Amino acid sequence: MDFWSFIGIWVAAFLTLSIYSVLYRDNPFYRFAEHLFVGVSVGYGIVLSIYQGLVPFALKPLWETVETGAPEGFIKLIPICIGLLFFARLSPRHTWLIRYPIAILIGFGSGIAIPNVLRANIFEQTRGTIAPFAEIAAGTLSGWGIFEAVLMVVGVICTLTYFFFAVEHRGPVKWLSKVGIAFLMIGFGSAFGNTVMGRVALLIQRVDFLLNDWIASIRALF
Amino acid sequence: MKRQVPLVLCFVFGIVMILTQFSPHSVSQWVYEEVISWVLIIGPFALVLATVTLIQTHTARIRRRTEHWQYSFVVFAGLIIMVLIGIFFTPQNSVFEWLYNNVQLPMDATMFSLLAFFIASAAYRAFRARTFEASLLLITALIVMMGNVPVGDFIWNKVLFWTPWEDGVSWWRQWILDNPNLSARRGIILGVSLGVISQSIRIILGIERSYLGGGD
């Protein structure tokens, strides 16, 4: 094990134990790790967004334009200037200028969302819900498969009914909505179970790190 | 200038993004890719502004000597070290990678694993089978959790060895995820998506203007 790997294991172990110390109660070690986490995460996010957005899409084309003299790259100055308008937020008199880049980002987001959400979340999900009925019509689905296909349609309709507030939930609508709640509870239970297991897996990974990597590094000292 | 131009910009960019996705023409594709690159250029500026706000907040904490103000220096230290090394030596630099692997990644995993403890106490309060719905939630969560790990299989087989469902917790878990869980999720996805589309149309047409904020 080289020197920097050894130091890395000790730093990671110290920060891991500092964060777990909050399970006892709030303390200076936890506060140190918490604040360091905020700073490091923000710094990492900035570096990544600059190297994945600004450098390849703005600075590189601009630099190539300067080198070759071709004017196409100068178009990148427009988004750079629009981006700089975000800093108008720091001047009370010019704060309103921040609306320009925000409006562009929101307009872009809304425009890109409509066709994609329509395609991926509405058409594809509806297709997935009713597709097994083609197999039922062709006679290729077993009895259990037919039950699952019907259950899927009933679940989707009942769940949607629960969120349908244009009519009062009385009579048959009330019962459909009640079945919808049952499906939702199964959905939330599954999500809860998966989340718990995901977090427990992370916990096991951290404990495994402490017991194997960190303890091994202590043994390596002696 | 202050309100009308942003509304026009929002409308133009929204309509352009919708239209270019339906046209395979080379000009349309060039516009589509150009707009995406514009957004990828503008985005980091928003993040830098957010960081400036974070710095202002912590500077104010230090100046006013509020409780635990000393830790604001730790925020600055982490931020400055990551940004300086990352920007001047690129993210592929070995020191930047060392900081990511030995400082950020362990803290990230540990912070999220803390939820395992908090979720246990939340589950104790939430998982009391008082009603039919709460019982459904409880049973589903138990089956999904047990089906995820070998010890769950072991417990299931010890308890249900006398039933036809012996040795089947993994199968039941997968069946729940693929059928009732998926149908509920599809219902939620369909509802949310219809909401997203209607809200997007309202934004593009300038009916929804809350993103402009108050003032002139």
How would you characterize the overall build of this protein?
The complex is a heterodimer of chains A (222) and B (216). In chain A, 79% of the residues lie in helices and 0% in strands. Chain A is mostly helical and 222 residues long. Chain A folds into three domains: 1-69, no CATH class; 73-117, no CATH class; 131-222, no CATH class. In chain A, helix 1 (3-20) packs across helix 2, helix 1 (3-20) crosses helix 7 (172-221) and helix 6 packs across helix 7. Chain A contains seven helices and no strands. The mean pLDDT of chain A is 92. Chain B is an all-alpha fold. Helices cover 79% and strands 0% of the residues of chain B. Chain B has eight helices and no strands. Chain B has helices at residues 4-20, 26-64, 71-89, 94-126, 132-148, 150-159, 169-178, 180-204. In chain B, helix 2 runs antiparallel to helix 3, helix 5 (132-148) packs across helix 7 (169-178) and helix 7 runs parallel beside helix 8 (180-204). The longest helix of chain B has 39 residues, at 26-64. Chain B is extended and about 75 Å long. The mean pLDDT of chain B is 89.
List the helices and strands and how they pair.
The complex is a heterodimer of chains A (222) and B (216).
Chain A: H1 3-20, H2 28-68, H3 77-84, H4 99-130, H5 132-138, H6 143-162, H7 172-221
Chain B: H1 4-20, H2 26-64, H3 71-89, H4 94-126, H5 132-148, H6 150-159, H7 169-178, H8 180-204
Helix pairs in contact in B: 1-2, 2-3, 5-6, 5-7, 7-8
Key words describing this protein structure:
heterodimer; A: 222 residues; mainly alpha; 7 helices; B: 216 residues
Task: Sum this structure up briefly.
Chain A is an all-alpha fold and 222 residues long. Helices cover 79% and strands 0% of the residues of chain A. The model of chain A has no long low-confidence stretch (mean pLDDT 92).
